[in-house]
Design goal:
With 376 residues, the chain is an alpha+beta fold. It contains eleven helices and nine strands. The strands form two sheets. Strands 1, 2, 3, 4, 5, 6 and 7 form a seven-stranded mixed β-sheet that branches. The longest helix has 37 residues. The two termini are 27 Å apart.
Length: 376
């Protein structure tokens, strides 16, 4: 596997980084994190009109760019570096991959063009109170009444769920667990913002009471769709965590060059140099794991479930360790509200838990490896 990016992919990274530098400075991040949606709709429109980011993974015949997980991962990494609250992970990874995995041409034609052109903000609602992240639907039910599909139940920790225009919901019916599309303004849908450690990433609780929906894919394909979607989402989240860690490393290196103690920059002290070297190793190791997962996704490799769980646990843990070390090296200022370090620390911690914590992913990795070795 050739883990190098093409010239076009590196140009995409440069364009996205320059764009985010202009539209997502720290002051804007702080302003937007106090809003219910956490992002600026005008900037979301610019991301579509000027860069076409929302349609990267959407097929060309449906209005997208026909790119793949590598390009999506590059964008996710840069969004993490900028601590952007744009609903890219929910819309362009979770929702797009769920629709593609459903293999329903009619629904793809109906749902994907709106996402590709930046009009539709979408998400996937699958986590239920008291259930594991990868449990598709136990308490959320769908029923067929007078020719209509109606959903009852609740989902929690739904990424960008409070303001999404389209919600893809896993629900259990007579055929098994399926995926169903629900409009954001559907009757019987109640949406409540959830308190979160990371104010830049908006989560919501959704309650369904006879909420109209329509199926996306076969009525028993929900588990398969969710498994595939979470593999892609874990790879993208791993890339985002690399961006978070890289920003903090750059921030600390600049700080230790400028901060003077005992007549010398603190970067001249061996203990500080060792700490920065360890942070660099963490970032580069995480980058390799994330890129391997993205390449596995791009190649549609059977290794993707293993690579995704490995990357999710490795990269989010690395981001957390880098964030902790960064605050230590920044000294007292690193824990003040005015400094950005604590915001990146919060993002790193929330990423550790999103889509299943690192222990869950390591357990899944062990189970999958054991199944392969035993032939089960």
């Amino acid at each position: 596997m050739d883990l190098t990016f093409s010239q076009e992919q590196e140009e995409l990274r440069g364009v996205v980084r320059a764009f985010l530098r202009d539209v997502s400075p720290e002051e804007e991040v702080r302003r937007l994190m106090e809003t219910p949606s956490g992002h600026d709709p005008a900037v979301w429109t610019k991301m579509s009109d000027q860069l076409g980011l929302q349609g990267l993974a959407v097929p060309e015949d449906l209005g997208g760019a026909g790119a793949g997980p590598l390009e999506v991962g590059i964008v996710a990494e840069e969004l993490g570096r900028a601590l952007s609250g744009a609903p890219f992970l929910s819309t362009c990874v979770l929702a797009v991959q769920a629709i593609l995995a459903a293999d329903d041409p009619g629904c793809s034609r109906e749902l994907l063009p709106g996402i590709a052109c930046g009009v539709t903000v979408a998400t996937v609602a699958f986590s239920e109170p008291g259930r594991p992240w990868d449990s598709p639907a136990e308490d959320t039910a769908v029923r067929h009444v007078d020719g209509r599909w109606l959903i009852d139940g609740a989902k929690e920790l739904v990424l960008d769920g409070a303001h999404a225009d389209l919600i893809l919901v896993t629900a259990r019916g007579d055929q098994g667990v399926g995926l169903y599309a629900v409009s954001g303004d559907a009757p019987g849908l109640t949406r409540t913002l959830s308190p979160a450690l990371d104010p830049t990433r908006k989560l919501a609780r959704l309650e369904f009471a006879g909420t109209p929906a329509h199926p996306v894919g076969p009525g028993d394909a929900g588990s398969r769709i969710l498994s595939r979607t979470l593999d892609h989402a874990s790879a993208a989240l791993a890339a985002e965590a690399v961006g978070v860690a890289q920003f903090l490393l750059d921030l600390v290196v600049a700080h230790v060059k400028d901060r003077v103690q005992f007549g010398r920059p603190i970067g001249a002290f061996q203990a500080v140099q060792h700490a920065c070297a360890n942070m660099y190793v963490e970032v580069e190791s995480a980058r390799a794991a994330a890129h391997h997962a993205l390449w596995s996704a791009a190649a549609n490799s059977p290794e993707l479930p293993l690579a995704a769980s490995l990357a999710k646990s490795c990269c989010t843990d690395a981001a957390m360790r880098v964030a902790t070390e960064a605050i230590q090296l920044l000294g007292g200022i690193g824990v003040t509200w005015e400094h950005p370090a604590h915001l990146y620390f919060r993002r790193a911690k929330s990423s550790q838990l999103l889509f299943g914590d690192t222990d869950q992913h390591r357990d899944a990795l062990v189970r999958r490896l054991d199944a392969r070795l035993t032939g089960a």
